[in-house]
Write a structure and sequence with these properties.
Length: about 190
């Protein structure tokens, strides 16, 4: 197997990091390379993006690098987010929705601890579809946003209140996610 070029690896890592982006420090830790080598590769990759007729660019704010759409595409991106999505929810979104439904009020960090992965995209999807909403801030350091289900969630699932959620049957196999249990129980009613 041929080892991918450093720029290719960086591009993949920046894509995978999403809106969070990555710092040079994080990249050093992942790649086991010195900062100078990483910065040179990022500069080269940034130039490649700016010289090509592509829809993406590499942004650098403070100490964080991330992929972003070019400003000329802003109007199209706005239309994308304004357009109601008619597609089904992804498995990640369903898992996140089930966790919020059963554990609300809950913070993003608490959701990620349960799921074991970042949940930025599923949360964005659920917020854009109005299935969840911000219900306040937790009284801890940093005052993180707390999420709960919305009125649209109740309507979508034919519930009059959150108290009507079916109980989770813990004797089910361990491989089933909360989302599987949640939606299996709802569909059997």
């Amino acid at each position: 197997m041929i080892e991918p070029k450093l720029e290719t690896i960086l591009e993949g890592l920046l894509f995978a990091s999403g809106n969070d982006g990555l710092t040079i420090r994080q990249l050093k830790q992942i790649l086991q390379l010195d900062a100078k080598t990483i910065q040179a590769a990022l500069v080269h990759l940034t130039e490649q993006y700016s010289e090509s007729d592509r829809g993406l660019m590499i942004m650098h704010t403070e100490d964080v690098y991330f992929l972003a759409t070019k400003p000329a595409l802003a109007a199209y991106c706005e239309k994308l987010f304004e357009t109601p999505q008619q597609t089904k929810l992804s498995q990640a979104s369903l898992e996140t929705l089930a966790i919020i439904a059963y554990k609300q009020p809950i913070t993003k960090t608490e959701i990620e601890e349960i799921r074991g992965v970042k949940s930025d995209r599923p949360l964005h999807t659920l917020l854009s579809r109005h299935l969840i909403e911000e219900v306040g801030r937790k009284e801890t350091i940093g005052r993180p946003i707390v999420f709960g289900t919305s009125k649209d969630f109740l309507i979508s699932f034919g519930l009059t209140s959150i108290d009507e959620l079916p109980p989770i049957q813990l004797e089910e196999t361990k491989e089933q996610t909360e989302a599987d249990l949640f939606f299996k129980t709802l569909s059997s009613e």
